[in-house]
Amino acid sequence: MSKIKGKVLIDRERCKGCDLCVVACPVHILALADQVNARGYHFSMVQQPESCIGCASCALVCPDSCITVYRQKVEA
Amino acid sequence: MAAEVEMKPENLVYAKPRLITDKTMHYCPGCSHGVVHKLVAEVIDEMGLEHDAIGISPVGCAVLAYDYIDIDWVESAHGRATTLATAIKRLRPDKMVFTYQGDGDLAAIGTGETIHAGNRGENITIIFINNAIYGMTGGQMAPTTLVGMKTATTPYGRDTHLNGYPYKIGEVMSLLDGVCYVTRQSVHTPAAVRKAKKAIRKAFENSMAGRGLSLVEIVATCNSGWKLSPVEANRWMEEHMMEFYPLGDLKDTEKK
Question: Which superfamily is assigned to B25-252 in CATH?
Answer without folding.
Answer: Thiamin diphosphate (ThDP)-binding fold, Pyr/PP domains (3.40.50.970)
